[in-house]
Amino acid sequence: MHSAELKAFYMVARLGSITQAAKKLGLSQPTITTQVRSLESQYNVELFYRGGRRLTLTQAGVELLPRVKKLMQEEADIEFFLRNCGQAQGKLRLAATAPYYMLDLIKRFHQQYPQVEVSLEIGNSQQVIEALEDYRVDLAASSQLNTDARLTHLTLGQDPLVLAVHREHPLAAQQRVSVNALASHCLLMREQGSTTRVLTEEMLARANVSAARLLEIGDRESIREAVVRNIGVSVIARQEVPDHPDLRVVELEQAPMISEHLYCLKERRQARLLAAFLTLAHSTVGD
Predict the structure, then answer these.
(1) Which long-range CB contacts under 8 A does 29-36 form with residues at least 24 apart?
(2) What predicted TM-score, i.e. pTM, was given to this entire model?
């Protein structure tokens, strides 16, 4: 059947955007548009209303979506089986909100299973869980606690949130500050969907504090570069602050802890490679 066209329809339907669907599938926007229109043309059906910035499903699209979702899951199951049925080889696809916990696990896993190909993609908490639910990755490490009954999870570790500032910033001389200290400074924030952002906003709300200015930057690497250039300050996990001569770490009073959880779909946790990685993770946490 028209696998590519259906996959394009499914991703556009979930995200409501040609642009976002193209990013998820690693294709160009014109390709996604062509695939969706081709599906509609071949069957003389309208699947989306195209008014405004966000695409909306028609009734036909609403009824088609669960059928396509089931097909995508079955295709993913077949691919997963074939990819992992070998005795010495296979491929393990991982996603994480940050590499710090996962890289040590990947190193140990690779030592035990050198023939297994491992890939790791980085995103925010919302993105990595979506990738797991869409069968685009096999395991996901997220700082967001997810109680979905379809998922099993293991807490890999915890880290305090701290304030990262430039060495010449007025707060750099302080070892520890209250949340109120953020009120007069430019605060660099992660994008929506980031657990760090959620925890930061909750911390500010509890203290009834509003930053003088907010600047949203889409990933942690860019935020660190912005702090290095003394554009603003940022609340991030302690271990995410790199060893850099221009950076200083300032502790925050009553700062929340941020955890990292390893997630797996329960239906797949007994698969050979997934079970091996989970066993390794359990033993590491217990060390």
Answers:
(1) 32/8, 35/4, 35/5, 35/8, 35/9, 36/5, 36/8, 36/9, 36/12
(2) 0.68
* pLDDT tens-digit series, residues 203-238: 999 999 888 788 998 788 899 899 999 999 999 998
What domains can you pick out in the chain, each with its CATH number?
A: 3-69 (1.10.10.10), 83-156+260-286 (3.40.190.10), 159-258 (3.40.190.10)
Q: What are the pLDDT digits (tens) for 107-165?
A: 999 998 898 899 999 888 888 998 898 888 999 999 888 888 999 999 998 889 999 99
Count Cα neighbours of 25 within 13 Å in the Cβ-side half-sphere.
26
Q: In this structure, what is the dihedral angle of CA atoms 283, 150, 262, 277, given to the nearest 10 degrees? A: 50
Based on its alpha-carbon atoms, the radius of gyration of the chain, rounded to whole angstroms, reads 22
8 Å CB contact between 179 and 252:
yes
Structure tokens given for 253: 């009073």
Q: Is the dihedral of CA 37, 9, 119, 77 positive or negative?
A: negative
